[in-house]
Amino acid sequence: xxxxxxxxxxxxxxxxxxxxxxxxxxxxxxxxxxxxxxxxxxxxxxxxxxxxxxxxxxxxxxxxxxxxxxxxxxxxxxxxxxxxxxx
Length: 87
Fold this sequence. Notes:
This is SHOCT domain-containing protein. The chain has about 90 residues and is an all-alpha fold. It has a domain at about 50-85. Helices cover about 55% and strands about 0% of the residues.
């Protein structure tokens, strides 16, 4: 009879539990503190050369904004647009 002081295989559960907690903790912390910035493929990016009205039209066409939001955006953009004076 081996000398295990009456504990048998019970010691494996706390060791396995600590190993699982370390693994999941490392995984969660790795996700939280990741330094790369991932851009979702559905997130539209604004190019400096794009016209805001064009961006609003694209977002409406993709279904990212509602009809009311599109109307409000275009109304605000047209109202605040500087007149293009050419002489």
